[in-house]
Design goal:
The chain is an alpha/beta fold and about 425 residues long. The protein is built from five helices and 28 strands. Among the domains are: about 60 residues, no CATH class; about 100 residues. About 30% of the residues are buried.
Length: about 425
């Protein structure tokens, strides 16, 4: 513990230097020292040292070496049974702790990073804590009750524009957020229950998310992962929201035994990627089960989908998949593959545009009923027909509208200076 002793000496020294000490009695050369003056100076220094010692003890009491567990996490027990703001207060009191866990009991207010403040003129103002490189764990206290399942509930916030009821929790700037054995109730003004952004990471384990019964935000999303962030959703469920899971901007989600019931189940955009293992059930109550746009990638190990599937310049593949009440699978320059289709897939479900390919075991897709869809064998037959093994393209019938006019006799062509020129507008002029 030598390094702790050295730290204590450094703190005492810095405290004494930082404080502007005013010695009661300053002696000069040749002066006879009076005992009362000497004792007064000594007592003054002793009192300051006591005050500094109290500060040092407070620092040591909250130091990581006294409060962290074997993995370096500083754990704080939070009881919300009598004070629903206890989690908010505990989080906002420890913004600089880089590895912190909250062991909660009861129903705690969410939206823990939002700070309710009062402006210069007494008006309510909202601020926000956004630490960098902080890892936060939130889980119930299972030691007192192994069946304890804590809850995150909406918190009322106020600013000059009105009142808001929100419970959403976010992680950003490379932070980590891990939620375990929790029920999250979204507020009427929440746009998300959990958000991972800006290269943050973490996960939900055995978490239920329920959207607001009457949301003011019509597009509530259970979990949003965006801008290079990644997260896993394990043994969790999302219900009562407009969109279940949304992945945006080169983000990644790992789905493990997840249940999603929403108007729109899973959405990816601009490079969002997801992988599902262990089973996933995606049910669209009034829309699209899976929507993937502009470079999305998805893989499902085993699962079932209810609702339409929309793929635009994206790829979705599944090892084993069941389609129930699926009205359409719409592909636009996209790829769809199911190695083991349990049931529900028919040629009539698919509609393809552009260079799309569909491979579902048991189905032979050759532009069935003009759906525009081809499987790998269908594309192979076109290639073989147009480009035989000799390498010489097979002549194809060209529509009259696309035939080139027969060549003119070069002697009848006008001179170069007599040819029309092409303006930027696209019109030919002489």
């Amino acid at each position: 513990m030598r390094w702790k002793t050295a730290l204590t000496v450094m703190i005492i020294s810095s405290q004494l230097n930082a404080a502007e000490l005013e010695i009661p009695k300053v002696f000069i050369n040749g002066e006879v020292a009076n005992a009362n003056d000497f004792n007064l100076n000594s007592n003054y220094l002793v009192e300051n040292l006591k005050e500094d010692r109290t500060k040092i003890e407070a620092i040591e009491a909250n130091a990581r070496w006294k409060n962290s567990d074997e993995s370096g996490v500083v754990n704080i027990e939070v009881d919300c049974t009598t004070n629903q703001s206890a989690l908010v207060e505990a989080y906002q009191s420890n913004p600089s702790v880089d590895h912190i866990g909250f062991i909660i009991t009861g129903s705690c207010f969410g939206s823990i990073a939002n700070v309710q403040e009062v402006g210069d003129e007494g008006q309510p103002v909202l601020g926000q804590i956004q630490p960098k490189n902080q890892v936060v764990y939130i889980q119930p206290n299972l030691e007192t009750d192994p069946t304890n399942r804590a809850k995150i509930v909406p918190r009322k916030l106020t600013d000059q524009n009105g009142e808001y009821f929100v419970s959403g929790i976010f992680s950003s700037f490379g932070n980590g957020l891990y939620l375990t054995n929790l029920d999250i109730e979204m507020g009427a003004d929440d746009s998300y229950a959990v958000l991972y952004s800006r290269a943050s990471n973490g996960g939900l384990s055995n978490v239920t998310i329920t959207g607001a019964a009457e949301p003011n935000n019509l597009y509530q999303t259970g979990v949003v992962v965006q801008n290079g962030a990644s997260a896993y959703i394990d043994s969790s469920s999302i219900t009562g929201v407009y969109r279940g899971v949304s992945m945006l901007g080169e983000s990644f989600v790992y789905l493990i035994n997840a249940t999603i019931i929403a108007q729109n189940g899973v959405r990816t955009f601009n490079g969002g990627t997801f992988r599902s293992v262990g089973g996933i059930d995606i049910t669209s109550t009034d829309g699209t089960a899976i929507s993937m746009n502009q470079g999305g990638l998805g893989f499902i190990q085993v699962g079932s989908i209810q609702g339409t599937v929309y793929l635009n310049k994206s790829s979705l593949s599944a090892q084993t998949l069941e389609a129930t009440n699926v009205s359409m699978i719409d592909l636009r320059s996209a790829h769809f593959t199911v190695l083991n289709a349990d049931q529900g897939f028919t040629e009539g479900l698919f509609k393809c545009y552009g260079l799309s390919s569909v491979n579902v075991n048991g189905l032979s897709l050759r532009n069935n009923n003009g759906n525009g869809c081809l499987d790998d064998e269908g594309w192979g037959s076109i290639i073989s027909g147009q480009f035989p093994s000799s390498g010489t393209p097979k002549d194809a019938e060209v529509p009259v509208s696309k035939r080139m006019p027969e060549a003119l006799d070069t002697e009848e062509l006008p001179l170069l200076e007599d040819m029309p020129t092409l303006r930027a507008s696209g019109r030919l002029v002489w």
